[in-house]
Amino acid sequence: MSPPRGGAATQPARSQVITGPPLAIAFDRDGRPTAAALGFARKNQVEVEALSRVKTQKGSYLAYRKQVPGRGARDILAEEIPNAIKGLELPKSMRWEASQFLFLRPIRWILCLFDGQVVPVQLASVRAGDRTYGHRILAGNREAVVANFADYRQKLREADVEIDSVERLRRIQAGLEEAALGQGGHLVEDRRLLQTVAHLNEHPGVVCGDFDPEFLKLPAEVLITVMREHQKYFSLQDREGNLLPKFLAVVDSDGACSAQIQAGHERVLRARLSDAAFFWESDLKVSLQDRIGLLKKITYQRNLGTLYDKALRIKGLSRFMVKGMQHPELLSSVQQAAELCKTDLTTEMVREFSNLQGVMGGLYGRAQGIEAGVSEAIYDHYLPGASEDGVPRGLAGAIVAMADKLDTLAGAFCLGLIPTGSRDPLGLRRQAMGLIRILLEKELGLSCEGMLARAYEGVRSFADRSLEETTLTFRNFLKDRMRFLFREQGYRYDEINAVLEVCWDNPVEVRKRLGAIAGMRESSDFQSLATSFKRIKNILLKAGIDPRAACAIDPARFATPEENLLHSRVVAIDRRISGALREGRHEAALGMMASLRPAVDSFFDRVLVMDEDPGVRKNRLALLTFLLQTFLKVADVSEMVAT
């Protein structure tokens, strides 16, 4: 409506350099302009005397410095606003006028002002103006002429439209809490639904309705989902957490017709709940065990077989994980849960409410008398989905969930289906993050690479890529997810890089090493060691030596006491560091590394690594390689940045 704070109504003028012919051909031997120079001047409508000379990497050229006047913000906006709107990615659009312009809905008017003046914007056949319209029902679609943004806000509020989404959200939250209190209940928290209704209503109000208590025989998950997904209703519960036969609807209303609105919503919800009750009773007539065969008719992914194939792969991978974790008592429950975990995808309820997959399997299993641990594992095996979700409650559910996620990742990566940019149709980022979170929150020190190799066996017959290629993709993908997660938890980027360079396979181990490094990074010995570590890496790289290659050291060729001292100190702590890591004493391992500082400093102060004698030089480089490899058992501290 007016220039932004700190902004300008007009672009500043700028100087533009237009390059012409090289000086060598622009003038003859007597310094007179050639046809090339005259043509360049004529093209720019100036005399040759007005031209200048510029030097570039390619040589000296004749040039014209042109002053370009700044464009007005109004003109720029008139050009950029339509382009920005046309560039929006809209999942569902419609053609609604002669030019076939695509948009979510027909555009009825455009209000576009800058500094009190109409910006000549046009979209399809609609031209911008200085008018807007109020609420189409409460204010009768009243027209309002707008002068500036404050005027816009005020006139729309007078016409029953609140343009501030934060204010709408606050008003809705207050209305819901007041209505819940009036009904003697508590609101079932649903932040996503709250955000949704805040953008669906211009003049929000809250209406309370009732439904037949008979429907409370349905699981609470079903009732809440039906009300939320179909009708955008909020649920109420009592102090014990039991659902009440009531709902709250956010509507565009000033309260004048609340009784009629309530009756209409109750009538619609009655039909929705009747459908859900029918689905529930109908689905229960077929046991989950009998539904296993139906999975053969449902394609999981066109290159990865059916859901039946996927369930078999999850079962095999789950068995592998149970054995690796040495929990034989879980094997029977995990195997049954893995076999049945996808069967609810054949039910009517999940066909209607896809976000209840897994949940319905657990509920149907419990209703059909399946062991509680198995039902719980089925119920939880999609967790965590979103970042706010918890992980599976029990270990059996965690195992099935990890097997499911690993199968998805292995199948996608072995086919080269890798997310690019913001596109991730298979939800692989979510699957990988879920896998990491389960391992961390359940403190399961499992090898991700080992589990992936077993998952790859299940999809090998479909694979376009080798195990090595698939593992490389998986490793980089998982490391990126861990970088994000641990940054969210407060670790510094250099600490994360230092650990992930040498240890990515076990997220629990990664977290332990991160904690140890974060606690020691301020130590002067550790800081000095990090500097020396970088120096060692650079020396080896310049010498063309692979830091991880085998190194043959001959102590008999040491020519200085410093070489002998450093060698004896590294040999002494090498095995101790390995033992400390096996025992989980990460701080002790780092302390051993830091204790080498005097020997390392003395070595670099008095020993020339690149000695003229090839044998001596090779031996000293082998010593540094051995030292580097000892350090790399813990972390690549060369990634650390001095503080």
Descriptive overview:
- The structure is a single chain.
- The chain is built from 25 helices and 18 strands.
- The protein has 643 residues and is an alpha+beta fold.
- Strands 13-15-16-14 form a 4-stranded antiparallel beta sheet, with helices on both faces. A 3-stranded antiparallel beta sheet has the order 1-3-2.
- A hairpin with a 3-residue loop joins strand 17 and strand 18 (305-306).
- 32% of the residues are buried.
- Mean pLDDT is 90; it is low at 1-6.
Short characterization:
By secondary structure, the protein is of the alpha+beta class. Helices cover 51% and strands 12% of the residues.
Keywords:
single chain; 643 residues; alpha+beta; 3-stranded antiparallel β-sheet; 25 helices; 51% helix; flat; disordered N terminus
Largest sheet: 4 strands, antiparallel
Q: What is the average per-residue confidence, as pLDDT, rounded to a whole number?
A: 90
By DSSP (H or I, 4+ residues per run), the number of helices equals 25
Which geometry do the CA atoms define?
flat
Query: In order across it, which strands form the biggest sheet?
Result: 13-15-16-14
- The total beta strand count reads 18
**Unreliable runs:** 1-6
Classify the helix fraction into a percent range.
40-55%
Our estimate of the beta-strand percent is: 5-15%
Distance between the termini: 47 Å
Computed over alpha carbons, the radius of gyration is 35 Å
- The secondary-structure class comes to alpha+beta
